Structure formats: C-alpha cells, structure tokens
Amino acid sequence: MDKATLFQLFKQNGKRKDSTSNAYATRISGLAKKFKTNDQLFLRDSESIFDIISTLATSTQANCLSAIIEYLTILDEHTLVDEYKKRKDLLDNKIEKDYKKNPISKNQQENMISYEELVKYCEMIDKEVTIYQNKPLPTLNDEWILKDLKSLKILLRMYLLHPTRNEYAGLQFITFREYKKIKEPEFNYVVLPASTGKRKPFLSITNYKTQDKYGLKITELQDKTLVKMLRDLYKEIGTTYLFKLAKSDQPWQGHNLSSIMTKYSSRLINKNISSTIMYKIIIKEAGYNFDEALKNDDYIKAEKFNEILQKYAKTRGHSRKIQEAVYIANQ
User: Lower CB density within 10 Å: C or N end of the chain?
Assistant: First the structure.
C-alpha cells in the first residue's frame, strides 16, 4: 500500500485533481504505516481507525474519512463505506455547529476597523509606494520595502474586490492560451487573455482550504484598475509568481502573506489586518447594507447586496449559510 500505487488508484477518478488524489494517498498510506501493514484489510477495524484519528482536529478527521470512504468505494467495500460515512456525517455536523458557535475572537475584535478606515489604509499603502519610489538615494533596505509595498498594493485591491483566505500568496501568471492546455489545474493562477480580445482576465483557484468540497473557483476580474495593475506587473515579470520575498526572491507562502500584511498595517495604523480580518470587515459592510435595504423594503438594493454576499461566499469557498452564521451574525 505504497503512496505511488494509491495515487494511481485515486487518479482513476477523472474528475479529481492530482493534488486531491495525492492528499488522499498520503492519508491512507500514513494510516497503513501506523498499523504497520500493506494490507487494506486494516480498514475493517473502523473503531481502531476512529481511535487513532481522534487526537486530530475535527476537520482533519473528516478529511481522513473522506479519503477512506473514497478508497473503500473503489474497492467495492460498501458495507464498510456506510460505517465510515456515519462517523463522517457526525463530524460534519460538529464542524457546522462549531462554526455557528465561533464568535469573533478577542484578537480580531481589537483589530477590526470600519470599511471606510480599511479603504483609507489601502490609500495609505499607495502613498507609501510613491514615497519610496521618489527617494533620491534609496538604500537596499528601501528597495526591499518598496517591493513589499508594491505587492501589498496589488494584494489589498484584490482582497477589497475578491476577499478570501491566504491562497493568493501562491498566484502565478499564465496566458489564456497556455491555461487552456491544462486539463486539471493544480496551481492558483491569474489567467491573462490577450488584451485585444473580449475575454476578461480571471482567477483560477485550485489550492485552498475547502477545495475538496467546492472544487475549482473561477473569479472574473472586472475592475479596470486591478486589471491594469496586473497587466503592468505581467509585463515586468512574465509568467511567474506574482508575489516573491524581497530578500530571497522566493515565492510567498501563506505565512509570508500574513506576516507582510500585518507588518505594514501594524506600522501604519497600529492594527493587524489579516486576510480574515479584511473578509470580516468587507462582508460586515455588505451585510449591513443588505439588512438595511430589507428593513426599508428596498428590494432592488437588497438583491444587489445579496448577490455581492453570494459572490464573496463563492470566492472564499463556503456557503452563504456559513457566511451568515459565522462571519456576519457574530460581529
């Protein structure tokens, strides 16, 4: 039951991304190692499996069971599948209840600002870029700061318009022509059609927290300012990662995105503005406008903001129900 064999087995499902097949193979092979066996019969001892994964986070347990259920389905072990599905359903129920009970944390409360203040902060970043660009004798450190600020300027506009988690850290540029050749995207892309055509650029997001449930996310980029910023950056760097560390030139990871976001917000407005905080601020504003429109029987405006909230939920990768229960109701 080696990982490579398992990967090929999971890959037989043509609708699944290779990254998901690899994750499933990793989980099954990892469990087999704990049982010190290469025989899939160890999965018949479901109680031992439940006991082993019980120390993991609830969402991780659910992900392990998803892999087991898929594996046993391939082997036509349908009786066993039902056993694991029962536990998976309980875990899913617990996850949803935890979402509903999870109020905004004290740390998040301390760093919350209004939507208007958030927009002003983004404008401050723009001014900081100009200041560092106009320095007559910039030091190497100044150049590093300018590179971070330029990346942050683009990133913040992306989050203002298309708020989500940290998956923008690994964005890569790709032309539409090359993107069409990819059968199953495994990376996160900014897809750029020819500037002379009618097709708009879009985000293709594959790797994110809830990818197993919601699959590939496609977000069309309609904001002219953002599109210009991205096309200008593409002319400068070509088909590569959008965001790289100033000192090492290595692509950002999720934690790099978080640290750079909070570093400059802390410095400029004494707040730690993360991607999650931005999402909460943005949908709080949209949720308030939606509720006010309903109170005033302004159904045209209510429909507009409901569509905006649905778009934000899709971009982040969760349901409108979760958005209302966790990110709006608890604020």
Answer: C
DSSP symbols for 25-87: HHHHHHHHHHHT-S-GGGGG-HHHHHHHHTTS-HHHHHHHHHHHHHHHHHTT-HHHHHHHHHH
What per-residue confidence (pLDDT) applies to 110? 86
Buried b (16+ CB within 10 A) or exposed e, 239-255: eebbbbbbeeeebbebe
Taking the C-alpha atoms of 76, 80, 81 and 86 in order, what is their torsion angle to the nearest 10 degrees?
170
In Å, how far are 34, 146, 250 from 235, measured between CA atoms?
50, 18, 19
| Ordered DSSP codes for 227-267 | HHHHHHHHHHH-SSBS-B-TTT-PBP-HHHHHHHHHHHHHH
**203: part of which helix (H) or strand (E)?**
strand 202-205
Sequence-separated (6 or more) residues with CB below 8 Å from residue 121:
113, 156, 265, 268, 269, 271, 273
The letter for the amino acid at 162 is H
Q: What is the mean pLDDT of the chain?
A: 89
**All residues at 6 or more sequence positions from 81 whose CB lies less than 8 Å from its CB, including other chains:** 69, 72, 73
pLDDT at 214: 77
Q: Give residue limits of the domains in the chain.
A: 3-101, 119-276
Q: The tokens 């499933």 sit on which residue?
A: 24
Specify whether the CB–CB gap between 330 and 103 falls below 8 A: yes
User: Is residue 159 within 8 Å of residue 275, measured between CB atoms?
Assistant: yes
Query: N- to C-terminal Cα distance for the chain?
Result: 47
* Least confident among 198-212, 242-256, 260-274: 198-212
Query: With 70 as the cut, is the pLDDT of residue 16 above it?
Result: no
- The residues near 193 (Cβ < 8 Å, ≥ 6 apart) are 175, 176, 199, 200, 201
Place of tokens 């450190």: 141
CA-closest candidate to residue 220, choices 170, 284, 171, 158: 158
Count of CB atoms situated within 10 Å of the CB of 177: 11
pTM higher than the cut 0.70: yes
Separation CA 279–CA 261 (nearest Å): 13
Give the pLDDT score at 20: 79
